[in-house]
Amino acid sequence: MIAALIFIFILATLLTMRRAKPKMTLIFFFVSLSCATLLFLHHASDELGLSF
Amino acid sequence: MMTKLCGWHRVSFVLLHVYVLGVCGVVLGAFGFQFIGKELPCPLCILQRMAMLLAAAGPMFIINRSSILDSDPKIDLAIGFGMSILAAVLGLWMSGRQVLLHILPGDPGYGGEVLGLHLYSWAFIVFATILLVSGITLILSRVMVIKTKFERPRVVSQLTLWVLGIVVSTNAISVFAESGTSWVLPDNPTEYKLIQEFKEFLKQRPREIPSKSQKAS
Questions:
Q1: Residue A39 falls within a domain, yes or no?
Q2: Per the structure, how many domains does chain A have?
Q3: DSSP A18
Q4: How many C-beta atoms surround the C-beta of residue B108 within 10 A?
Q5: CA distance A28 to chain B (A)
Q6: What ipTM describes this predicted complex?
Q7: pTM to 2 decimals?
Q8: pLDDT in tens, B106-138
Q9: Which of B42, B55, B79, B100 has the greatest number of CB atoms lying within 10 Å of its CB?
Q10: Which of the 8 DSSP states describes residue B146?
């Protein structure tokens, strides 16, 4: 479900691109990127204790 | 206000669309493996798809900003390709790890092959190409920056955004079907968990609901 949520964040990144200010796009982009990195660390290692 | 593209600006504008649609094509190819080849993607494959779509969000951002009048095209180019570079670095990390997992001689690898290479090896090449293209575009930013502003987004740009949005949405649905109600994806998926959970739910439900007259007796 976390993976599906990250795809929804990516969709939100695209949907906010038509706004005059790019702030929301960048926020959603970095949230997606951070969540994808954390999920990758979770799948790549058991020792980091990043289990959701 | 200018509404016509000329020279290098036209080339740059076309290349940005090719970039986004190219990435969409790669992800749709992976979808082909999933639905036609009946190969369920592993968690690392899903994560690489995310990184690819995030890398495509960069040029899509630049395309969208070309119809926002008070934006600075140089800053938009820098932000867009910065987004692409960050996503491509993450993707290289993910695909590199998966390549190293199957690097030992005799290891059959995960999933099918395309032209002798597994999908994660192709993903590594795609991310390296994205980094290369982004770096070259930033070096050539003086000629590649789109200074032209449009009154409203072009039809081709709107279509590209729709294609990217549909690819992201279908991935979200497919991943939700694969993971079901569990938080993370299974390491070696063999079935769509959501469908399996739904079948089990139907089995557990009482088959006959007693009527009011039966209850009274």
A1: yes
A2: 1
A3: G
A4: 7
A5: 10
A6: 0.86
A7: 0.86
A8: 887 777 788 888 888 999 999 999 999 999 999
A9: B55
A10: -
Contact B187 A25 (CB under 8 A): no
Smallest CA–CA distance from A29 into chain B, residue: B54
> Whole-angstrom Cα distance, residue A3 to residue B65?
28
Q: Both tokens of residue B65?
A: 């900003």
Q: Is the pLDDT of residue B190 over 80?
A: no
For the purposes of burial, counting CB atoms within 10 Å of the CB of B214, is it exposed (0-12), middle (13-18) or buried (19 or more)? exposed
In a domain, A33, yes or no: yes
- The closest of B96, B94, B88, B93 to B134, measured between CA atoms, is B88
Query: Chain A, 9-38: which have a CB under 8 Å from a chain B CB?
Result: 10-11, 13-15, 17-18, 20, 22, 25-26, 29, 32-33, 36-37
Closest Cβ opposite residue B57 in set A18, A29, A40:
A29
Average pLDDT of chain B is: 85
Average per-residue pLDDT in chain A? 84
CA distance A8 to chain B (A): 7
B56 Cβ partners below 8 Å, 6+ apart?
B19, B20, B23, B24, B84, B164
Which residues on chain B are in Cβ contact (under 8 Å) with A43? 43-44, 47, 184-185, 187
Flag whether A40 is in a domain. yes
Minimum CA–CA partner of A13 in chain B: B57
Residue with tokens 């192709």: B122
First to last CA, chain A: 11
Nearest to B198 by CA among B175, B213, B181, B214: B181
Domain ranges, residue A18: 2-44
Q: Can you tell me which residue has the tokens 């289990």?
A: A51
